[in-house]
Design brief:
- The protein is globular.
- The protein is an alpha+beta fold.
- The N and C termini lie far apart (46 Å).
- The strands form 4 sheets. Strands 10, 11, 12, 13, 14, 15, 16, 18 and 20 form a 9-stranded antiparallel sheet that branches. Strands 3-2-1-4-5 form a 5-stranded parallel sheet, sandwiched between helices.
- The longest helix is centred in the middle third of the chain and has 17 residues.
- It has 3 domains: 89 residues, 3-Layer(aba) Sandwich (Rossmann fold); 61 residues, ATP-grasp fold, A domain (Dna Ligase, domain 1, 2-Layer Sandwich); 192 residues, ATP-grasp fold, B domain (D-amino Acid Aminotransferase, Chain A, domain 1).
- The structure holds adenosine-5'-triphosphate and magnesium ion.
- Adenosine-5'-triphosphate (ATP) binds next to strand 7 and strand 15.
- Magnesium ion binds next to strand 15.
């Protein structure tokens, strides 16, 4: 029986979930997204839209009434309201899991309780907590908003005691936590899925390169030993065993100089570092997410070709309409998200560079250098 899918959030992730859903008409008959931005990315590819804030109680209730199953592309939905509408629609991942994950402090506490290694952290409620914490962790340390952070916008790196007051004031009384800075040698992530029947599958470990706190590129597979890749995938599986609910989880990790692996954070949703799967794998993370929440057999996650995903971000010093990008290059796949306006570092699209047989990651990285100018954002 074909179902109506509701998605909280209709940005690029909701858009790519919608596109995957439209390829499964025997399972999904209609897609409705809840998003505050009129003509959001997902609505441009055929989703119906309820225009409202992600936390709007009445809008969430309406979405649940109109949908058979609900999922999300952002973690800031109101988990209590979602919990209250569980009779109207099946919600995955579960509101309980969302509630833990959407608060970085609760999330890290949960991981620690389950013996999964994370960077050292403490809760911050006052400036004196912060001073104490910095005495313990030293400099630099990261002050983080516990909720509603994305693309590093909820983080403040404190390099010296002079910055304590500024960092504290920057957040304006939000719930905060302090984290010890990890001098990692690599950032990696695992995209893991569990279906409603309990089957778990992970995509191979990828390497993530951030700039200005924002993901810039993902290299699949990660340039790291087989042993560490295995270990990271094991940690991802253990984490999945602890978390309830079905769907894709993006698990971000740090690999330290001593080859320890610490979890940085978990996203209870499809993840930017899984966009390469659109072209590198038989099953994309978006299809896998749908398979997971629909209780279908999970798809094959083997990496078929080495692939680099490069995010197309708004230029730092420009806001406004931008020139469209055209690329027609073999094995280069451009995906724009239909956003009319560029803003500094806004995620506007991505390209996947897929390796030909025998082509190495180094060769792909060189190829990316020759493409960068052509995918940069310029005023219209
Ligand atoms: P995103 O939306 O990109 O996942 P976010 O806003 O949730 O980001 P984090 O994932 O906490 O923020 O941090 C963003 C980046 O900042 C990390 O990917 C990493 O590069 C860096 N970072 C975060 N925490 C630490 C840490 N404890 N030590 C070193 N670097 C860190
Ligand atoms: Mg992160």
């Amino acid at each position: 029986m074909s179902k109506i899918l509701g998605i909280i959030g209709g940005g690029q992730l909701g858009m790519m979930i919608t596109e995957a859903a439209k390829k499964m008409p025997e399972h999904i008959s209609k897609i409705i997204v809840l998003d505050p931005i009129e003509n959001c990315s997902a609505s441009q590819v055929g989703a119906e839209q309820i225009i409202a804030d992600f936390k709007d109680k009445n809008a969430i209730i309406e979405l649940a009434k109109r949908s058979d199953i609900i999922t999300y592309e952002i973690e800031s939905g109101d988990s209590d309201v979602l919990k209250s509408v569980e009779n109207d629609a099946e919600i995955n991942p579960s509101p309980e899991t969302l509630k833990i994950i959407q608060d970085k402090f609760l999330q890290k506490s949960f991981l620690l309780q389950n013996n999964i290694q994370v960077p050292e952290f403490i809760k911050i409620e006052s400036i004196s907590d912060l001073e104490q914490g910095l005495k313990k962790f030293g400099y630099p340390s990261l002050l983080k908003a516990r909720r509603d952070a994305y693309d590093g916008r909820g983080n403040f790196k404190i390099d010296s005691p002079e910055q304590i007051q500024k960092a504290f004031d920057y957040f304006n009384e939000k719930n905060l936590m302090l984290e010890k800075f990890v001098p990692f040698k690599m950032e990696v992530s695992v995209i893991a899925a569990r279906n409603t029947k309990g089957q778990i599958k992970t995509f191979p470990l990828v390497e993530n390169i951030h700039q200005d706190n924002i993901l810039r590129k993902t290299i699949a597979p990660a340039r790291i030993s087989e042993k560490i890749a295995k270990k990271a995938e094991e940690i991802a599986k253990t984490t999945m065993d602890m978390l309830k609910g079905a769907g894709i989880f993006g698990i971000e990790m740090f690999v330290t100089e001593n080859d320890e692996i610490l979890i940085n954070e978990i996203a209870p949703r499809v993840h930017n570092s899984g966009h390469h799967t659109l072209e590198s794998s038989e099953t994309s993370q978006f299809e896998q997410h749908l398979r997971a929440i629909l209780g279908l057999e999970l798809g094959n996650t083997t990496l078929l070709h080495p692939t680099i995903m490069y995010n197309i971000l708004g230029s730092k010093n420009f806001e406004g309409e931008y020139k469209s990008i055209n690329l027609s290059e073999q094995n280069v796949f451009l995906k724009m998200y239909g956003k009319k306006i560029s803003k500094p570092l806004r995620k506007l699209g991505h390209v996947n560079l897929v390796g030909n047989p025998g082509e190495t990651i180094d060769q792909l990285l060189k190829k990316l250098e020759t493409l960068k100018d052509r995918v940069s954002i310029n005023p219209a």
